[in-house]
Amino acid sequence: MTTTIEKPTEKVAERAPLLSVAGLTKNYVIGDLVTPVLKGIDFDIYPGEFVAMLGPSGSGKSTLLSILGTLLKPTAGHFFMLGNDLTEADERELTKFRNRNIGFVFQYHHLLPDFTALENVMFPAVASKLMDDVEAEVRATMLLNRVGLGHRLNYRATKLSGGQKQRVALARALMNNPALVLADEPTGNLDRESAHQVMELLAEINAESGTTFLISTHDPEIAKRCQRKITIIDGKVDSIETNPTVKQDLAAA
Amino acid sequence: MRYEAKVALRYLLSSKMQTALLIGGVGVGVLVFCFMSALINGLASYQIEQTVGSIPHITIEPREQTPKVLGGTDGTLILPAILRDNTQRSQIRAWQTVLDTVLADDNVRLAVPVVAGNGFITRGQAVQPVSITGVNPEQLSEVAAIGPAIIKGTTDLDLNGIIIGSRLARNLSIDVGQTLVIRSDRGGQRDVKVRGIFSIGVESLDERVAYMNFKAAKALLNLDNGISRIEIKLKDLDVAPALSASFAVSTGLKVTSWVEKNKRLFDAIQGQGSTGSLIKFFSIVTIIIGVSSALLLTTVRRKSEIGIMRSMGMTKGFINRVFVIQGVLIGLLGAAVGSSGAFAFTTLVMQLAVRADGSRVFPIDPSQGAYVAGIMLATVASTVAAILPARAASRVDPLEAISQ
């Protein structure tokens, strides 16, 4: 099989990469059994990009996202984000880095059920004292309005529908204005209509704010909306393709 | 800390039944703690009061004669021996000076000079041995708690009066107002009138003890210049041992505190205290086990939430604090519920558990419930109990929790 590696457009690639992955490997070890999951991954993601990560189940997408989200240590290789070698950082530094620079959207919303939509969104900022209550409330309200939930601010997370919960989760991921949002099958648990709404939102927010998105998905429809597609097969990058139908220089420079 | 407290409170409020049971559990532990304290301390106070109420706190007596050395030149055996001077009665001679010295001390509430000796009471052909105690009439109640024990007559002790026990009265077939002859072992003799008859309930006392006027007894016992002892009552019982040591030095006499004379009572009170402490210890252990197990279950239930908080960049310390604060809140609320419940319960027991004669079934004292200690120990125990679950929660692997 031929590996296709397409660079982003010149305009995008002029900037320094936001995320640089070099020779990343991950082995799971159970007793004497060593299972290689990632076998040397290399790619760059540039600020403002909207990138899909495709691949069959078990190809290593989720493991890769976990490593890039600093929730898992790689076995070997390096990855750099905003100029920091995150493979060298200790847990305390990674926790702080994660809070300030990375937003997560998972397949399941993982909202705190005892908190309202507004409180859930405010959480990453106030609990880490990044913002005071007033500042956080203003921003969280703005984000919830942006995801179309301005009328559900004080609803308990448990009282929201599946699509609404996922939109709250998206607002929460954006709360600390992260440089990168990692989304792992963000529409996997949603009905078609809700999935469409969430996907629209992701694309719009990327276009408006220049937030970089790396979205792991099975859905070819989602992949079509992304500027680039990174396909992972059997723990390796199989191809990186540019999507000619999507505008390439969406992000604010 | 503020946001950790908010999360902790929200967690407690979201599982109202579990939280109520936990607070109730801690409350019961504190209730047992305070109830046991009120009972054990109340019982100790009751026993001390019963004992100390009728005995002197400090007694000053003539010094016992010390052994004198016999012989003692080179090569000879030295034999220490006590040479008793049986011609002299053991007495405190300069007793007024001693009394003044004692009364000058701020801790002393009362000091009563007492004369005591043995004698016989005869009435017709009947002769009964008695132990004579002579005391100033107005101080009689301080030397002997016979006031409430008087079953006939009064406690008025004029120069010719005597108060005797009920068994003695029966043995002599004598009643209040009748005259009898009392003779001391020193040869003195006096006609006295029975003013009162008491019944303490202790056979030996009711049969052998007789109270007389101080001056009359002095003459009868041939103690013109001295007295037998000084009985002292203190404002604060606890200073008795230290004060008796100080009096021993300042007076040069034999000074004994009530503590030395009632060692068995002290051993018994200490034994009760140890049993109470053991029960209290287990009530605290129960709190720790209860709170710890419930919070550990919460960490399992909240695993995915803990995971997402960690993925959002909350530190292990943050998660730790969320659970420790839950422990603190449960402890404080449980302690408040338990201590107020204990006060109400002990007060109720005190009021309701009363015998027909008005005496209490339980010598419980609600004011001695050790509430502050109970509240503090329960709060500390509950906080300590939260440490294990807090550590378990902070060690949750966010990735594993999110993938669940």
Structure notes:
The complex is a heterodimer of chains A (253) and B (404). With 253 residues, chain A is an alpha/beta fold. Chain A has a domain at 47-70 and 90-242: P-loop containing nucleotide triphosphate hydrolases (Rossmann fold, 3-Layer(aba) Sandwich). Helix content of chain A is 33%, strand content 26%. Chain A has a seven-stranded mixed β-sheet with strand order 1-11-10-4-9-8-7. In chain A, helix 4 (117-126) crosses helix 5 (133-146) and helix 5 (133-146) packs across helix 6 (162-174). The radius of gyration of chain A is 18 Å and the shape is globular. In chain A, 48% of the residues are buried. The model of chain A has no long low-confidence stretch (mean pLDDT 87). By secondary structure, chain B is of the alpha+beta class. Chain B folds into two domains: 2-51 and 265-403, no CATH class; 95-261, no CATH class. Chain B is 53% helix and 19% strand. Chain B is built from 14 helices and twelve strands. A six-stranded mixed barrel of chain B has the order 4-5-10-7-9-8. Chain B is elongated, with a radius of gyration of 33 Å.
Structural features:
heterodimer, A: 253 residues, alpha/beta, Rossmann fold, 4-stranded antiparallel β-sheet, 26% strand, globular, B: 404 residues, alpha+beta, 14 helices
Alpha-carbon distance between the two ends of chain B = 29 Å
Using the alpha-carbon principal axes, give the shape of chain A. globular
Strand order of the largest sheet of chain B: 4-5-10-7-9-8
Helix-strand string of chain A: EHEEEHEEHEHHHEHEHEE
Question: Any guess at the CATH architecture of the domain at 47-70 and 90-242 in chain A?
Answer: 3-Layer(aba) Sandwich
- Largest contact between chains: A-B, 27 and 23 residues
